Amino acid sequence: MIEPQAPAPPGSAPPGSAQPGHGPAGPGGSGGRGGAGGAARLPVRQATGRFLVLSGVFVCAACGLVYELELVALASYLMGDSVTQASVVLSVMVFAMGVGSLAAKRLRRHAAAGFGAVEAVLALVGGCSAMALYAVFAWTGDWGGLWSDGPRVLLVAFSLATGLLIGAEVPLLMELIQRIRRQDPGGAVADLFAADYVGALVGGLAFPFLLLPFLGQLTGALITGAVNAVVGGALVLGLFRQDLTRRARRLLITANVCVLAVLASATALVDDFERAARHALYGSDVRVALRTEVQEVVLTGGRDDRPLSLYLDGRLRAAQPDELRHHEALVHPAMTGPHARVLILGGGDGLAAREVLRHHGVDRAEVVEVDAGLVRLARSDPALSALNRHSLDDPRVTVTIADPFDRLRGASPDTYDVVISDLPEPGVTETTKLYSEEFYGLARRVLAPGGRLVVHAGPMTAHPRTYWTVESTLRAAGFRTAPYRSGDSGLILASPATAPALRLDPSGPRPRTLTDSGLASAARTAARTRIPGLPPSSLVHPRYAP
User: Fold this and answer.
1) Residue-range domain boundaries for the chain
2) What are the record keywords, sorted (predicted)?
3) Mean predicted lDDT score pLDDT of the chain
4) How far is CA 93 from the centre of its chain?
5) Given this structure, which CATH class describes domain 46-274?
6) Which of 144, 189, 399, 537 could form an S-S bond across to 543 if both were Cys, CB 3.0 to 4.6 Å?
7) DSSP E strands: which ranges in 314-473?
8) 540 forms bridges with which residues in the sheet?
9) Does the annotation flag 390 for ligand binding?
10) Is 68 annotated as a binding residue?
């Protein structure tokens, strides 16, 4: 904390002004230009200088929060489980900010030069962090083995570096604003933090509503870094240039020019980088890559006799020929019995609807999908629409763009004979509520007497505890269950009335990959992996491990 200066003796220069012919702290100050506590020689009036410093605080705070949100968003997209990623980033960054503030106390005698250097490095680290993380993921697959074992080293490293640099800003800015016009420490802190918090608000709102939808994660981070470098460099080199030696000015100008050159080059090459990264991640046969309002959708293959694969946010959603086995096993056992009214939760690719429409007697099938962009692609892409047999354009099919939880909550009781839950696996935090006891309670309410619910519960071999937690949650919601598997996909057929019969409709279509004996074997295989005694998952107590 900076102490107020003692009253100046009569005839001396007041605090905040410079002695004629000397640097701010007299000869021998910071590099011959002024030491800690000396008044800065400004090219503008004091009031203007304070306004410019607080404006710089505002912009730098906005940039800092954008870096933080970029790390959280990209880590959640690449690794899933946004709660864990946000906790790692936020806790490490807040800790590092404290360490950075302590470390920056040593730079107070060189506050202007120190702040300029901190901002140049922060602009480079924060601006390039998203591209570096994505590059490591794309070209090493499993983050070089760092993600799966121990701490998430790469994410922690960027969070730590960014937090250290953001924390170092505070004492340096405090020193600079006090050297413009000395005031009581409480007032200076209030002014500084007011500008900082308002800037953080603007950065926090700009990221989801401006940067992410219009620029994307990579370009948004690079542009933010460029703004950070320009504002930090302009503040020091324009307002506090008299505090810097000639050598310090040259070094800061060179550093900022180099940082801006790196960021500008990366921005110019970002499209080529994304294409190369997608090829490394998905193979060289990427045909469609688009960012919808909800997720990244990638299609590979689908022409020249190459099998089609659909990826959502980097995770394989459907691939020929395995998708046929999965969707037949998901849909056909649930269609044994009344099936005039069918609700498909998820399934925006139209593949579950394709199997539903193979059954005679379907009067109405409603697909509830949160991503309108995926639905448009499923209808318009020649390969994907051919694979789903144009099911979403069938007059019996209604597509509702809505959150599945909200749709169930707004539906009338006893509305559907069959509910098919074709949703992303529950290990992803964003979908955990769609595997909760409350969600299945809503599904039970909308089912007609004797109705059936089938749930895709994720990979059984890789995450058996998650699978059996879904089964336990269904039973807690009042369902009788019949667990089974298809390949590595864990599936659960459930009914609120009696234990559902795991068999095919004898009067229905004949699946190409499924038989009654195969279903019986799939049920026995699933039963051998049972983990008893697992508690159910709820909205307030989610139990699915990442």
Assistant:
1) 46-274, 281-315, 320-527
2) Cell membrane, Membrane, Polyamine biosynthesis, Spermidine biosynthesis, Transferase, Transmembrane, Transmembrane helix
3) 88
4) 17
5) mainly alpha
6) 537
7) 315-319, 341-346, 364-369, 397-401, 416-422, 447-459
8) none
9) no
10) no
